[in-house]
Structure formats: structure tokens, C-alpha cells
Amino acid sequence: MNNNRIVVLGAAESGVGAAVLALKKGFEVLVSDMGKIKDNYKAILNEYGVAWEEGNHTEELILNAGEIVKSPGIPDTAPMVMKAKEAGIPIISEIEFAGRYTNAKMICITGSNGKTTTTSLIYHIFQTAGYNVGLAGNIGRSLALQIAEGKEFDYYVIELSSFQLDNMYQFKANTAILLNITPDHLDRYDNCMQNYTDSKMRILQNQTEEDAFIYWADDPIVKEELKKYNTKAKLCPFSIISQEGMAGYVSEGMYNIVNEPTFSMPQSELSLKGKHNMYNTLAAGIASRLNGISDETLKECLTTFKGVEHRLEKVACIDEVLYINDSKATNVDACWYALDSMTTPTILIIGGKDKGNDYNAIKDLVKEKCASIVYLGADNEKLHNFFDPLGIPVADTHSMKECVEACKKMAKPGYTVLLSPCCASFDLFKNMEDRGEQFCHYVKEG
Description:
The protein is α/β, with parallel strands linked by helices. It has 3 domains: about 1-90, 3-Layer(aba) Sandwich (Rossmann fold), CATH 3.40.50; about 95-305, UDP-N-acetylmuramoyl-L-alanine:D-glutamate ligase, CATH 3.40.1190.10; about 315-445, Alpha-Beta Complex (Protein-Tyrosine Phosphatase, Chain A), CATH 3.90.190.20. It is about 35% helix and about 20% strand. The protein has 17 helices and 20 strands. A 9-stranded mixed sheet has the order 7-8-6-9-10-11-12-13-14. A 6-stranded mixed sheet has the order 15-16-20-17-18-19, with helices on both faces. It has a 5-stranded parallel sheet with strand order 3-2-1-4-5. Helix 6 (about 115-130) crosses helix 12. The mean pLDDT is about 95.
């Protein structure tokens, strides 16, 4: 084992960033990817002179590493990861590695749903306030690459997935945000909810009295899990149903952040609508006030923020039918919030790579809100078995073009067509963004 040698498994955004940073810090580096490395990432590796291989893992070049940086998309069950563990080689995430080389304050956001919206909103607020702030993690550019390129930010706003948290050990969030915990990615966690929950709770690790933990007080899992943790951080819960002890709450049509003095504004003036976005906005408001954002800037940003792509994004209104792109809804809970916000008869587009989903959570909402369902996946058998008995008209499709055509045939004036798939996109699409972009394209194509 060579302690001056770092191997990076996976050559996408996080892996390439980690490799460049490791090289700049004087390590001997190899990047190894079982798949094909994209040309833009090859160009970065070649520019910095980082050694790489694709299409295979050369065992003798990997198992002599002092440390391995693993891309979050690679499961622990991958053969090379298992061999590295057997060899006693530490395996860490890009965020863990990059965090060693910056003194910036870390505002870290996790949760099963709402991460991207909350992360983007906090970043928007900090930028508007004139803070020297970077955006990283599951959104934006690699934290490691930004540090390698000499970016000297005072703050980083970082979206963290459970996969990233799994391989983080010494890293600390100065402000940690846990939005919710609902079933997701169970296929990566032995179909065990507790394993997934444990990953999410890692957002708390290493926090001290100087740090803050912002969380949804009404989440039943979070409430129970917190009893197991003796966290030293300042606890900052938020709620839309209670006020006592809350750092943020909604009451009588007013949005309130309690931080001497209380910041308040009419709920109707918030740019982000829907119950799920109220949670996101409360978390962002608490984080902003804790980090010195003025009332004036906070109100301006909460009033004007436009949201994020692929999250309840209004695409077009054609022949009096509204089309909404919610491609980011890759689990059942996200779809629940999307359906809950619907106020017109809805055609729901659902399907993709199932992650061990239990659709019972949306069954009542589907019966209440949906005029019809369009299945979109390589294999729709599970969807047929669950939803067909509800007696709602359905269509079976296996491409986005076919899907949108089916929706246009079924839709009537005043309907909403909602792409909120509940599932990962990898059976038919490159990723969630590709799915959403294809939806927008075919809707507008006419």
C-alpha cells in the first residue's frame, strides 16, 4: 500500500475533480472507470496529466493505493470496491477528500426530497447578499475541482446525497439541513429503510456547539432518530403545524423565522408554491438568518426566486392543457407532493427504473386527482399490477415521444399533464435531466 498514491474510481464530475485536486496536492493518481469516460472529462484529465483507464479496473494498479476516492454512483457491492475493502484500503467520497483543503464554512443540505430546490435557494440568497459563496455536491461543479482551481470561497452550499454521506467521516457541516427521510434508493441499502436512514443522519457527524442542525420537526422518522443522537449542535426545527420551540414556522398565513427579532412576511408573497416548497423555504430562511443574511435580502430572494429545472416546472399550456415537468420526482414521496399540489384533473406520467417503490403512499391521491395514468418505462408490469385495478384509464408507453402523444390524446381542456415518475430514469434515458428535456421537447413540438 502506497500512502502517496490515490486511486479514483469513476470518472464523472466528482471523480475527475478529486483526481485533479489529488495531483495538485502531490499525490500519484490513477482514475479508473469500468465504463467509457466522457470526452469532456478525458480532456480535463489530459490537460492536467492525470493517468486514467476506461472499460476495466486493473487490479494491481488499484490495490496498491493508500486511499480510494469512490464516485457516489458506484455501489459498495461493486467487485473492485469489495476487494479494496478486503485489502484494508480506506474508501472516501470526493466531498470528504476536498474538505481537507478548504476552510470555507459548509452549508450542507440532505433529505429524500427538496435538496436541489433548497440548495439552489440558499445559494441564490447568499449570492444576492454579496457573500463569497460556491455551489457544489450533487449540484453544480465538483467541490474538489473548484478547490484545485484555487477558488477561495468563504462559504460553500453543498447538496449531499445519501451515497456521498456514506463515505464521509471527518467532514463537518457548519450548518446541516435535513429536510425529510422517506423511502428512496432502497435497492442500494439491502431494501432496509434503517440502513438508508442511518446514511441520512450522517449529516450530523462531527458537529460542535458552534454549528447548527436545521430539520423538519414533523418528520416521524427524523423525530425518532434524533433520540438516538447526542448532538452538540444548536437545534433549529421548522414546522407548518406548530410554533412552540420552532426556529421557523407558518401561522395564520405568515411565514416566520425566529432569530431575534422574528422575520415575518405573508405566505402569499413567497415565490415557491405548494406544501413541499414551504418546508424548503423555511429551511433556507433559517440557514440564511443563522449566517447573517439581512431581512431585506431574505425577503427579496424569497419573493423572486424562480425555482429549479425539472421540479414542478411549467413547460407550456397547449389547447388549454397545462404541461408540468417534475422529472426530479424520482421517488414516491416526491410524486405525492406533486400530486397534492394539483388543482385540476391530472394525467400522471409515471415509471422508469423502480427502486423498490411502494406505491400505496400515492394510491389515494391518484384516485382523487388523476383522470388517467400514462406508464413510461422499459418494463411497466409492476405499474400495471398496482394501478390498473383502480379503474382509471391507462396507457402503456416505452419512449417519451410515444408518452407525450398518448397524453395529448387523453387530455381535455382544463387538464394538467404531470411528469412525476416516482422512479429513476436510467432504463430509457441518460439521466433525470435528459428525461425532463425530452418531455419539454415533445410537448413543444406540437
